[in-house]
Amino acid sequence: MEVTPQRPGWPEPARLPLPEHVQQLAARARRVRTPCGEGSMLWHVWGEGAAGRQAPLVLLHGGSGSWLHWVRNIEDLRAQGREVWAADLPGFGDSAVPPAGSDADALVEPLAKGLRQLFGSQACDLVGFSFGGLTAGLLLAAHPRLARRLVLVGAPAMGVVPRPQFELRAWRHLPAAQQLEIHRHNLAALMLQDPAAIDAEDGLALAVHVTNVLRDRMPRRRLAHTDALARALPALRCPVHAIYGRGDAIYRGWIAALEGAFARAAPDFRGLQLIADAGHWVQFERPGAFLDALLVALAE
Question: Are 149 and 298 in contact (CB under 8 A)?
Fold first, then answer.
């Protein structure tokens, strides 16, 4: 596991073990690599062979994340008979950094080359969470034939929020025990509507978050605070669906403006589904309701 180096004099970062069932889920995946910069991009695959019946289902995680952003959804999607490809995006998880750039636009070409290597001319069903949704929109604007549909989950950069609605705290310079408190704060500020979810299920959310942020090598991301996704969507040829938690911290006070923004930007927008009692990390906080919403989008 490649961890972002600490600055000289900073303390060792806090680490938390992933629960046993997550380690078992990871062990059941086939690991496939495609070229990326001076190394490779990692894809985790479950349900090999199911793509003969349906398009491969490709999941792109959020910022400071990895495939673990989908940890509570993989088994549900496999039970639906889907072949699931969960990426570690370039610069995150166990993937190499992209050859140039440090934002979503730098990921477009490594992703496009990887998807063509994996699937040839076959279009996938593409689901992008948060930063991964922004990346997916930029990808399909440049390479529209790669996906037959796009599902955006909690995606930023739609140009409806005048200023950031949350504040995250720095943690790398702090002692390990204090780092964990900052991680809890950041999860509550951005990712989860219910703070009790942070330590539920043996602290799964906290363990996933700590594991993810230690491997974030793309710290200078700015496009999420622009209208970059809204500007990319007019170039898309495929149907576009959106799923958001009603309490998404990115759109606090502005969630009602989202549907109109999507309808104006995406030529084939199929609708916004809002999930109650869920924040930004909606697929983790409400996995059952998220699955129902995603299946509606995938069935159209």
Answer: yes
25-63 burial code (b ≥16 CB/10 A, e <16) = beeebeebbbebbeebbbbbbbbeebbeeebbbbbbbbb
Residue 8 domain flag: no
11 is a domain residue: no
| Within-domain flag for 15 | no
By the 10 Å C-beta count (0-12 exposed, 13-18 middle, 19+ buried), 256 is classed as exposed
Q: How many CB atoms lie within 10 A of CB 298?
A: 18
- The per-residue pLDDT for range 157-205, each reduced to its tens digit, is 999 998 888 899 999 999 998 999 999 999 999 999 999 999 999 999 9
CA dist 140 and 55 (Å) reads 16
For 117-164, what is each residue's pLDDT tens digit? Answer: 999 999 999 999 999 999 999 999 999 999 999 999 999 999 999 888
- Which pLDDT score, from 0 to 100, does residue 126 have? 98
- Residue 14 within a domain: no
Number of domains forming the structure of the chain = 1
